[in-house]
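Quick start: read one record
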Amino acid sequence: MSLWKKGFRRLGRRGQKSVSAEQSAQRQTEHICQIEALEPRRLLAFSVVPIHLGMVYGEYATQDDFTGNRFELTWDGGQPGTQLTELVINADKDGQGLSPGDCFFDIAEGGRGVYGWKGFEILENQGIDQVSVQVEDGGAVLRLSFAGFDPGDRLVFLIDVDEAGYWDGTAYHDNSKAEGAEFEGSWLTATFTAPHYYQATASSQFVDQYGTLLAGSGLSLPQDDLLPGKPDSSADLTAGGFLQLQQTPLPITLAGRVYEDANMNNSIDSGELGIAGVQLSLWRKEGDAYVDTGLRATTDALGYYRFEATSEVSLDPGVYRIVQTQPDGYLSVGAQPGHVGAETRGLAESPNVLTEIQLLGGDQSQENNFGEVRPASICGRIFADMNLDGAWQPGEPRLAGVTVQLLDADGHLLQTTATNSDGQYCFTGLLPGVYSVRELQPAGYLDGPDQVGSVGGYIVLPDTLAGIQLVSGAHGVEYNFSEILPGRLSGYVFQDGPTLVLEHGQPVPPIESVRDGQFTPDDTPLAGVSVQLWRDGILVAETTTDANGFFEFAMLQPGNYTLRQVQPAGYVDGIDTAGSLGGLADSHSDTISAISIAPGANGTNYWFSE
């Protein structure tokens, strides 16, 4: 038996007069309070204002029954919008049909009742929109249906009530008077409705002495010993029926989806897939703080989840928060508050938290969604391009420690990294979007051709790969930057002294006429002589010899070059000599041409003699 039934049994026992052994045996089989079982047990964690209903009965008949019996009804409490919709009085106390001691309604002439009759008549209607009655002459049940019966409204009506007597085989021997003790034990059943709550129904029995019940209800109804209009004590003429019940809210649910928001617009679009196995927790606001309810939900194969009450945890009206555990392998895009019907309920506190979800009983909060994306990446390599094809080949040097920058679509710097020992770099954990990568030119190298990788883009000179469009989970690879090892050319300008030709250890004349164009210790270096470097008919560099007659051109792009000496004043042109990388020397024009410079080549000993 529920706690409510036990409570009403205790109330029903208070103030009962002594009854016969037969009546006592009958009443031992009766339930004093019947509350309709409408849902499984729920743990209530919110404030519920109980409903108190009372009805007072009085016998007014003196010489006859044309006056009728008086009923006064009111109620109070309940949740917002609660209304009393039906009230049933059943004077068949044991439910076995009319038998001696039961009561019935005498509403027409010629029926079972004696000493007059009285049909249903409303004396007072305070605030009720509509009252409908169903009752049969000689019947034990009076059913009242209401519209707009709100807390504090009141109904007073008259109807004749007689007490059923015994049957002698030819006639009933009924009693026209049904005083409080005779009406005691009749059943009072009330049904209430309210938005967001289950229909609530409760029953109890009228008792003759109801003073304690009236005081406990707090309702304004006539006292046990005094009927309206009767100046003298009338405790024996009255009975009262009182109910107290609490309403049970309709169950609420919260549901939504965790999905891959591929276009990052914080909305589920056609074709976007759910993410399975994501855990979410539900919190409830208590005071100013949220408390974990202990409820957990896990997304199904399509990414859907749902919170609903369990036998251990109720979901009652209140303010809720949904917290998503960030799924592995994903980045948060955002959270979208759900709705009840067409009304949005809640706020996105963060990409993983929806909060301030206010729900009433029966509310179904839908589409509390969380958008995720798979992280993207951009990777590449920086290397020395030895065959000048712009693509890395095994064996080509990979450059470590080169700085690479990641830029957004507007050119703002986002991240900086450096190549590892294998010349590789990676930017990982990126949200979908448009990016650029930029290499900072390493010292000691010449810029080579760059390479757009696997997800597209374009080259912006110098050293930027732009327009890299990353979608969810995209991994852009082979965004490569190549460098070129520069070449060098160096040599000397000198006065070619006479070279002694020896024969049997003795110089062979004429000594002054023998010069070989080779730079030997007996030659004199010429400082300040201008030497030019040409490529494809274009002068690309010019320098002058130092005190040792030395000249050098560094950081040269691969290609074919020509060295040209500007004839120094006061000297006669001598023999010119190609150096270590070969070439064609033309002493008459002071040029050494067709010098082929490969990546990293170092051409030495290019001599101009005077």
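The helical segments are 3-13, 21-28, 180-183, 211-217.
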